[in-house]
Amino acid sequence: MFYGAMKLSVGGALKLTFRPWVEGLENVPAEGPAILASNHLSFSDSFFLPAMLDRKVTFIAKQEYFTTPGVKGRLTAAFFKGVGQLPVDRSGSRGAGEAAIKAGIDVIKRGELFGIYPEGTRSPDGRLYRGKPGGLARVALATGAPVLPVAMIDTEKIQPPGKVMPKLMRPGIRIGKPLDFSRYHGMDGDRFILRSVTDEVMYEIMKLSGQEYVDVYATAAKRQIADAEAARKAAEKEKDKHKSGA
């Protein structure tokens, strides 16, 4: 009931304000489990996609969103629970991955929709990055659930980094036809199979989104961007230092 009320209020507000368009709704099963594997452009992706579906979609979220103290923290926790986010302790990369996989399998076993971002984090520049072979592929092979590739369109343009007020524009969602990986049943321990499944899904997301594909992980790209920015600032500081000493 709480989910329904939250979806009605939040989803209704998103639809009214931003008027998102969606293609491929007919590919989402009316009942039974499925995995929605989406590109990740914005924090708002986890809200726009559930808002446009009749069924509940459960995504994985950082546990900190549910445990922050204070009034704001409680409101944030209530909001994330209300829109179907599932808290997972991500302290320690391996533990985080195992927790997310278990959570995803549990959602699928309940016959529900599980949402996951194979890139593992938001794209730093709007391009599509290499999918991580753990979560998505292992949940798919362990459960036999179909995988629906999903492309979020222009959500990163609504509220770019550093902007407080969102831009009123129409984001889009494209949902592809379900992918069946039953031919790999029982092979979720084979890293080459996991890589193959993940790459196949990422290829379908690329076709739906029209994004440029980059064959590196988004986390590595973010580190490279951060290192480059740090180097730029250090160079500017050194330049200013020389100027002041001249």
TrEMBL record:
<feature type="domain" description="Phospholipid/glycerol acyltransferase">
    <location>
        <begin position="34"/>
        <end position="155"/>
    </location>
</feature>
<dbReference type="GO" id="GO:0006654">
    <property type="term" value="P:phosphatidic acid biosynthetic process"/>
</dbReference>
<dbReference type="GO" id="GO:0005886">
    <property type="term" value="C:plasma membrane"/>
</dbReference>
<keyword id="KW-0012">Acyltransferase</keyword>
<dbReference type="Pfam" id="PF01553">
    <property type="entry name" value="Acyltransferase"/>
</dbReference>
<protein>
    <submittedName>
        <fullName>1-acyl-sn-glycerol-3-phosphate acyltransferase</fullName>
    </submittedName>
</protein>
<keyword id="KW-0808">Transferase</keyword>
<dbReference type="GO" id="GO:0003841">
    <property type="term" value="F:1-acylglycerol-3-phosphate O-acyltransferase activity"/>
</dbReference>
<keyword id="KW-0175">Coiled coil</keyword>
<dbReference type="InterPro" id="IPR002123">
    <property type="entry name" value="Plipid/glycerol_acylTrfase"/>
</dbReference>
<feature type="coiled-coil region">
    <location>
        <begin position="218"/>
        <end position="245"/>
    </location>
</feature>
